[in-house]
Structure formats: C-alpha cells, structure tokens
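> agent: user asked for a holo structure of the chain below bound to S-adenosylmethionine. Plan: (1) validate sequence alphabet, (2) canonicalize SMILES, (3) run complex prediction with ligand conditioning, (4) return tokens. Step 1... ok. Step 2... ok. Step 3 dispatched.
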Amino acid sequence: MAGGEVGTDDVWARWLLTDRHAGDEAYRAAIEDEVSRYTERVLDAAELRPGMTLLDLGAGDGSLALRALERLGGEAEVVLTDVSAPLLAHAKARLVAAGRGPRCRFHRLAADRLGGIDSASVDAVTSRAVLAYVGPRAAAFAEAFRVLRPGGRLSIAEPVFRDEAELALALAARVAAGGGAQDPLLPLIARWKAAQFPATAEGIAATPITNFGERDLLYLAQAAGFTDLHLAFCIDVGRARPVSWASYIGTSPHPLAPSLAMIMARDFSAGERALLEAALRPAVEAGGLPQTDRIAYLNGRRPTA
Ligand SMILES: C[S@@+](CC[C@H](N)C(=O)[O-])C[C@H]1O[C@@H](n2cnc3c(N)ncnc32)[C@H](O)[C@@H]1O
C-alpha cells in the first residue's frame, strides 16, 4: 500500500492497514476491490462536479478522497477528517505521492465535533463505514448538516452489524438451552461470535456498532434537517473466496473485534482449537463458505431554504 506502513497501537490504523487482510496481499487486493465498489456508489450519490469541495468523514487510508480527485481530474478540494493521527498521516502521504496533496486538507476531528470546519463551507459530505463506530450519531448528522452549503449533498455507506449480534445472541441462547450436547462445535462458535459482537440484548443496545439499523440512519438524517433522502439497504449473500487458514483466523470483521486467532489463543483450550480447525479449515481453504454483507446507502440534501 502506498504511503508507507505504520507500526501503531492505533486500533483504526492497525485494522485498516494490516488486520483487515492479516498481511495477506492477495486478500488485501480482493478486499480493496470490494470496498472500491462501495466507494464508487457513495461518490455517484455525492453528485461530483468540478470546483466542488468535498468533506470525507473518517477518511481512513484516503481511498475515497483519492478516487474523488481522480474522477474530477483534480478539479476539487477534498477535506479529510479522522480521529486517527496515523491514518491521517498515511492518507496524506498517499495523496501527496499521487500528486493530489495541494488539493487536500487534513483535520484530526471526530465526526460529531467538526469544530475546525466552517459552517456552510462544503458541497458534499461523504462517509463510508464510519458512523457505525460513532456513539453520538445524531450529533454527527447535525455536524454534517452544519458544514454543508444549502443544496449540498450527503452520501454515506454504512455496514449494519445488528444481524451478526442477533446471531451471537441466538447462538448463546442455543448453548444455554443445552445445544452443545448434540453439537460440540456450537459452544465454540458461540464463544467466538460473542467475542466479536455483543451477545446480550443489553449489549446490543449499548454498543454503537450494533445499536442501529438502516432505517435509524434515515431517521437521524431526517431529524438533522436533510431532505430528498434515499435509503437503499443491500444484503449480498455470496460465497467466500478461498483463503489460507492463517489469513482467515488472522482477520477480524471490524476494527474493534479480536481476530479468531486471538480468541482461540486467549479463550480456547488446545483441544477446542483443534476441533474448530478440523471442522472449518477445509471449507475455508476450498472457498465457498456463505458470506453476507449488509450495507446501508443513504443520500440526501441540505435544503436550499
Ligand atoms: C472501517 S474504517 C473506514 C475508513 C474509510 N472511511 C474507508 O472507507 O476505508 C473506520 C474509520 O473511522 C474512523 N473513525 C472511528 N471513529 C471515528 C469518529 N468518532 N469520528 C471520525 N472518524 C472515526 C477510523 O479512524 C477509521 O478511519
């Protein structure tokens, strides 16, 4: 990846630049290919036009900013904000290396507190896979509204993880009801999922990544004042590509989740590790395990009057 790697204890940078692909280059390329489709869709709904100023919230490694400038032939200003200093540094190095540095500004800001950005100063606010991690989500929508010029566009794409947590909850209930007696894998899978997603109703409600659904994003945008809103919730059920066992267990589904390798090392006995590996590894390496993505795309406009 351009821009240089960061050795970091920053959870966001570590996940985006390393843990998302477990250091597996082929896996990284496949993920980036997938992510670029979400990015294009977010940019399509942002109504790009030469001369505009676009603000990307939670800009991460700078991919969306880079692509926006590519699509506009450099005829735009892009403001990148993020809470992660290492990611902002990485994005800056990448954009400078691509010759896009003069067109970019970088601010270390949380999405719900955009104090360094003037009101009514940008033409589009974009964000991809960020608001899912923001606790004060209503404040983030209010800030996006504030910084947009009247008529400006909001375009976001967010993963919706609630179903994963519901699955973890259901697995915990089956184990509690004695399901492990018929299927010794069940308690292991339940512990694995519960380590990555909250597995209680209280935990789901209290955790930012699981306490919202796609419609909540729409209602939050509406409450912030946005109009001409369009929500599309896409559930794609496919088959996972073949991947090495090391890469499979080395990745985690989101930046705040431990990898399966970490969970096994920390919570499983040697016998449990062997049981899970024997059951899963052949299917992981052959490819074809079911894989479901749930992405909410939302766009709207700050009214002109
Ligand atoms: C899953 S990554 C997505 C990065 C990028 N938007 C992309 O599409 O690749 C989540 C990003 O959100 C940032 N982030 C986390 N909490 C945030 C907050 N409260 N405000 C702004 N950004 C935040 C992280 O630093 C990270 O860059």
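> agent: step 4 complete. Summary for user: The longest helix spans residues 25-45. Residues 12, 16, 35, 57-61, 63-64, 82-84, 87, 110-111, 128-130, 133-134, 255 surround S-adenosylmethionine (CB under 6 Å).
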